From TrEMBL:
Listed CDD domains: ADA
Species per Swiss-Prot/TrEMBL record: Streptomyces xantholiticus
InterPro entries with a match to the protein in the record: A_deaminase_dom, ADE, Ado/ade_deaminase, Metal_Hydrolase
Presence of the UniProt keyword Nucleotide-binding in the record: no
Protein name: Adenine deaminase
Amino acids binding Zn(2+): H9, H11, H189, D270
Cofactor binding comment, as recorded: Binds 1 zinc ion per subunit.
PANTHER family for the chain: ADENINE DEAMINASE (PTHR43114)
Length: 333
């Protein structure tokens, strides 16, 4: 049995495996510029975040109907549950779909169809987090929040993703203020490729409760001290950092140093179909590459539930936390 854990940094569009992409392309009459799933997989050699995003947005053209989004979530939950995920807070990128004529209603209703049966089918509790694309105008984010209003009962929070450099958090102050006024929780990608100052802005200007990635905080000792003191959770994604060249090899990843510095770290898979592993694989990889021991893996699992948005269900959180404390390690995840 794998270590029970929550996944807090997972882009549902990043779970689109090559085989499912080809199946959906066939179903929807979409022509893909790759001969087959293997040829597509061989294209997964990225030099930075942007080179990944170009392929990621391109492949999303196969997602068109509610069924497609429901099938995507089902495939993710089945894999995640098998790797010990008990709770998943799932990002989606509405603008990547509305820009190509798929309505936000199709996206949310499709995702929700699978999420509504996630507990019963896979034993996984879930939340949805709607992300704004930071390389799009702030007005587009505001329009997206407006379009999401009929679906807010399904959405727990908002996030900020896509190309980071040159798109500081402060660009999205108005939409985050509006989201907060609607009672939505707030997170944002910061310090993945962008500078440590973006992490500070995400906290102080956008009012986020967690930082997605936050890797580059390590360049600023005062910021590290603040993040540790305020127990700000960081949703790190070590396999993503290797594939997008933020670190050369996993052995160089600062996760162990970050934990030693008192940071509230979690590990997550980001876009597992593209980056070589789901979250259980990630736990296994950091155990192997960084020598994290059983109690450090337990800390990461504990943090994942503490940092989750299960505040509306403390009984469930306590149950998950008890599972973590009682877990007996037989193998490394
Ligand atoms: N790692 C990442 N960073 C920014 N935006 C993303 N969208 C999907 N994955 C992302
Ligand atoms: Zn991400």
């Amino acid at each position: 049995m794998p270590l029970p854990k929550a996944e807090l940094h997972l882009h549902i569009e990043g779970t689109l495996e090559p085989e499912l992409a080809f199946a959906l392309a066939g179903r929807n009459g979409v022509e893909l510029p790759f001969a087959d799933a293997d040829a597509l997989r061989h294209a997964y050699l990225f030099k930075d975040l942007q080179s990944f995003l170009d392929l990621y947005y391109g492949l999303m053209t196969v997602l068109r109907t509610e069924d497609d989004f429901a099938d995507l979530v089902d495939a993710y939950l089945e894999r995640a549950a098998a790797q010990g995920v008990r709770h998943a807070e799932i990002f989606f990128d509405p603008q990547a779909h509305t820009a190509r004529g798929v309505t936000i209603g199709t996206v949310v209703e499709g995702l929700a169809r699978s999420l509504d049966r996630a507990e019963e089918r896979y034993g996984v509790s879930t939340r949805l987090i709607m992300c704004f694309l930071r390389d799009q105008p702030a007005g587009s984010a505001l329009a997206t929040l407006e379009a999401a209003k009929p679906y807010l009962h399904r959405i727990t929070g908002v996030g900020l993703d896509s190309a980071e450099a040159g798109h500081p958090p402060s660009k999205f102050r108005a939409v985050y203020d509006a989201a907060a006024a609607l009672g939505l929780r707030r997170v944002a990608h910061a310090g993945e490729e962008g500078p440590p100052a973006y992490i500070t802005e995400a906290l102080d200007v956008l009012g986020v409760e967690r930082i997605d990635h936050g890797l580059r905080c390590m360049e600023d000792a005062e910021l590290v001290a603040r993040l540790a003191r305020e127990r700000i959770p960081l949703t790190l994604c070590p396999l993503s950092n290797v594939r997008l060249r933020a670190v050369d090899v996993l052995e160089d990843h600062p996760l162990a140093r970050m934990m030693a510095a008192g940071l509230m770290c979690t590990v997550n898979s980001d876009d597992p179909a593209y980056f070589g592993g789901y979250v259980g694989d990630t736990f296994h990889a950091v155990h192997e590459a960084l020598g994290l021991g059983d109690e450090q893996l337990r800390e990461l699992a504990r943090n994942s539930f503490l940092a989750s948005f299960l505040d509306d269900d403390e009984e469930r959180r306590a149950r998950y936390l008890a599972e973590v404390e009682e877990y007996e390690f037989e193998h490394a995840r």
